[in-house]
Request: fold
Amino acid sequence: MMRFSDLLSMSVNNLRRRKMRTFLTVLGVLIGTASIVVMVSLGIGFNELTMEQYASYGSLTEVTVYSNQSSGGDGKNEPKRMTDDVIAQFGKLNHVKAASPLLQADTLMSQGAYQANVTIIGVTPEYMDNISLKQGHLPDKGKKELQMVVGNMVARQFSNPKSRSQDYYDDPTKIPEIDFMNRPIFVIFDTDAYYQTQNGGSGDGKTPVKPPKKYLLTTAGLVAGGVEDYNNYSYNVYVDLDVLKSQLKQIFKKKPIPNQPTNKKGKPYGYFIYDQAVVEVDDMANVTEVQKAITDMGYQANSNMEWLEQSQKQAKMVQALLGGIGTVSLFVAAIGIANTMMMSIYERTKEIGILKVLGFDMNHIRDMFLLESGFIGFLGGVTGITFSYGISFLINRFLAGHFMPDMPGDLSRIPLWLSIAAVGFSVFVGMAAGFFPSLRAMKLSPLAAIRNE
Amino acid sequence: MVENKTPMIQVKNLYKVYKVGDTKVYALDGVDFTIYKGEFCAIVGPSGSGKSTLLNMLAGLEKPSKGEIVIAGNHIEKLSENQLVTFRRKHVGFIFQSYNLIKTLNALENVALPLSFRGVPKKIRNEKAKQYIKLVGLEKQMNHMANEMSGGQQQRVGIARALAVDPQIIFADEPTGNLDSKTTKEVLGLMQRIVKEQNQTLVMVTHDNYIAKFADRQFHIVDGKIFKIEEQHHEETKGDMENVQS
Reply:
């Protein structure tokens, strides 16, 4: 049997013999491959950018649960309230890693001349683990005092009540310098009482209200990110849930805690209920399922997944469309290959006849032509990929900024699998285009060698 | 040689019929003969006599309409096209009228080409090719491309290519048809000598009676039928003497 290396060198020699034609055919495949790869890379880039954007808004495996306010409105049913028991039920659902309530307390914070209305949120330590910090550490476990983890944009909420200027949001340089880490913050939990004293007495003016107590809280850590970089934890202050609970009970004693519902006599319940909870799911793929389970329990559940799924669908459509455009040009290139091979066969009719007379196996004739067309595909694929990387670089460098200035990151992305698949596919296309010509060559008559022209 | 004759090619009752419109044309009309090992035979006839058709069929390039062709014990009329290719690769060398060298290869590579079809490694086949190039006297032109050689030189390369595979039979189709008379003599002398030296079997087709005289036996064919077989024992010595003189 003939050696493969000999067959291969015959094929390559045949291509080298007609350099211009081989070059032009390869060029066709190059353009075809590059257009597919660049198009698909844009699709992938678009998809991944969307994912990254959603991920930056908050974890993609999180489901946020709200107590269903509307179901309380019909008067008959008690509104579905989230208690610790309900949270525990969430925690037991399939695919749920952890469930944490968000216990919110609206407070008034001050440091120096500045003050701000900031929501303190009590969460479980597991929830806290998701927060990435720029400085400091998460609150120590088991401590009785409140230790704050401060969002990176909280400073923007501070203002000097005596000055009139409120343009902090427009100019980042005017954001007050609040030193969270080194100086304590004065925190008023009973804001109602504070405003009543500010207004000089209670609403009915009978009993003078005692000014509420100010608490000195220290900061354990700061959430990662600058004052301009929004993330899920930017605007709030996080503390340990259990510490916050006991603190609130201590502060308000018999009085109803704000945001906590009361019974008909205006007395607080003996337990905490939550407006909001966060459920952590083990995998993105299961988010929708968990979300549905929670909705079925009668709560309102939201996740970034809903939006993501929609934009993923959109991204897939864009990808398919772009890929389709690319495929058309590779198809044209395939026709080019087939044409080149046919011409080559017409030119080499006599030579093929000679080879057949000399005992060149028919299957090897077919293989020789398949190798030639496959090699054209391979060359086109490899050069096409190289070319695509160049185009991709240019798109990312010069074009992406114009079209999507609000989306940082590369618009065109060529993963390794795409490069390998593209080369493989162009080899396949080359061989497929060369298949029928090669069968034709195989069936040529050896008598062509005998004819004298 | 006459004493132990081994039949190499046996042709029995061979017919080839072409249909031209409604009429049948008999290119071969019942041909029988036997060629023995070590013989140099010529098939002679005017154009249209069917001699080329006969050679094509012996080499398995065309299918007979009827009859048997047994070459070295193989019934080649029963083989498929691919089997015929394999048969030629293993048993047959072929010399063409227009030399038919591969233009992109040099002389040595042309001679080595049929060996590569058999899977002979490059080193061995190049050595063997060199040996046959020397045999036909072209050591100096070994690395010349086809278009850098004269017709006679090209045909010598063609002969070396046919010989290099150690075939059992060599077919030659008007091997000197494109050569001048001096070169014709040289090439025929070379073929004659090699057949003798290597005890090869050579079947040559020609329309020229003078050229046919170089053969041991001549089959004269007219209108698809053999009408005369001539033996020329004296030709061997005469040919050799001519060779020595030139």
